[in-house]
Design brief:
heterodimer, A: alpha/beta, Hypothetical Protein Ychn, Chain: A, 5-stranded parallel sheet, B: 130 residues, alpha/beta, 5 helices, 5 strands, 37% helix
Chain lengths: 135, 130
C-alpha cells in the first residue's frame, strides 16, 4: 500500500511495575488491522519485555509475554532491539523469545523478526518513520 | 498543519496533561488544526467529571471540555483503558451495568483505532507523557 505510513512503537519500560508495556502491545495489535508499516523497538528496560520464561504467578499480574509470539501472524515482523540496552543488562539474544514470521513471498519460509541494532542504527531507523509512539 | 495529540498520563499526578493543553491552545492560536486528542493509559482520567479540585487549582478536566467546545476539538478516551480505570459514558454504563456515568462533556469513549486513524490522518502525532 503506497499511502501507508511508517509507525514505530518504542518500548522503553520493564514489562511489569507499570502498565505501559501491556497497553503498548494492545495498540500494536489493534493498529495491525490498519495495513500500515509497523516496526517495534525495544530499548532501555524495554528489552526485558521480550525475556523468555516470564512467570508472574507470584506478583499476581497477568503474564502477557506469550502475546509477542503472535506478532508475526499480524504481519508485525520488524522488531528492533537496541544492542547497548541488552549489553548494559548482561543479556544476549538467547535470553529473549525467538520471534518469527512466515514470508508469503517465499513459500511461507519462517524468518526471524528480531534484529539487534546499535543505538546509531536505531536513530537512523527512527529518522525514517512517519509516526513514533513512545511507551 | 494538522496535529493529533496523545495524552498518556493522569491529570495532577503528572504535568503532561497541562502541557498538552498549552500545546493545543498554542497550536490553535497559530492557526493549526487539531484533528483529535486521544487519552490513553492513566490519561483517560482527564475525561472524568467527578473530580473536584480545590478552587485555587486548575480544573484540568473542565479546561479540556471548554477547549473542545470553543474550538470543536475531538476528545477521545480509549475504551480499554477507560474500562480498567472506571471512566464511564452512557453506553458503557448500560453495557457493563454501572450505577452512573462520569464522562466529562466534550469527551467520547472509543477504540484504539481512533489513535491509529489520528496518526494516519494528521501531519504530526505528538505524544505527551513519560
Amino acid at each position: 500500500m503506497s499511502d501507508a505510513k511508517k509507525f514505530m512503537y518504542i518500548n522503553r519500560k520493564a514489562p511489569y511495575g507499570t502498565i505501559y508495556a501491556w497497553e503498548s502491545l494492545e495498540v500494536v495489535l489493534i493498529g495491525a488491522a490498519f495495513d500500515q508499516e509497523v516496526s517495534l523497538a525495544f530499548v532501555d528496560d524495554g528489552v526485558y519485555q521480550l525475556m523468555k520464561g516470564q512467570d508472574t504467578t507470584e506478583v499476581g499480574i497477568k503474564n502477557f509475554s506469550p502475546t509477542y509470539a503472535a506478532l508475526g501472524d499480524y504481519d508485525v515482523n520488524k522488531i528492533y532491539i537496541e544492542k547497548e540496552s541488552l549489553e548494559a543488562r548482561g543479556l544476549t539474544l538467547d535470553d529473549l523469545q525467538h520471534l518469527v514470521w512466515e514470508d508469503e513471498d517465499e513459500d511461507w519460509a519462517e524468518k526471524d523478526s528480531i534484529r539487534v541494532v546499535t543505538s546509531a542504527e536505531l536513530a537512523e531507523i527512527f529518522e525514517q518513520q512517519d509516526i513514533t509512539l513512545s511507551f | 498543519m494538522k496535529f493529533s495529540i496523545q495524552v498518556s498520563e493522569g491529570p495532577y499526578n503528572h504535568e503532561s496533561s497541562v502541557t498538552a493543553i498549552n500545546f493545543v491552545k498554542a497550536a490553535v492560536e497559530a492557526g493549526h488544526d487539531i484533528f483529535r486528542v486521544f487519552f490513553y493509559h492513566d490519561g483517560v482520567n482527564n475525561g472524568t467529571n467527578y473530580a473536584t479540585p480545590p478552587q485555587d487549582d486548575m480544573n484540568i478536566q473542565k479546561t479540556w471540555s471548554e477547549l473542545a467546545a470553543a474550538h470543536d476539538i475531538d476528545l477521545v478516551v480509549c475504551v480499554a483503558a477507560a474500562q480498567r480505570r472506571g471512566i464511564v459514558d452512557e453506553g458503557e454504563m448500560t453495557r457493563n451495568k454501572k450505577d452512573g456515568m462520569n464522562i466529562m462533556d466534550g469527551f467520547r469513549i472509543s477504540g484504539l483505532g481512533q489513535l491509529i486513524e489520528a496518526g494516519i490522518e494528521s501531519d504530526r502525532l505528538v505524544v505527551f507523557g513519560d
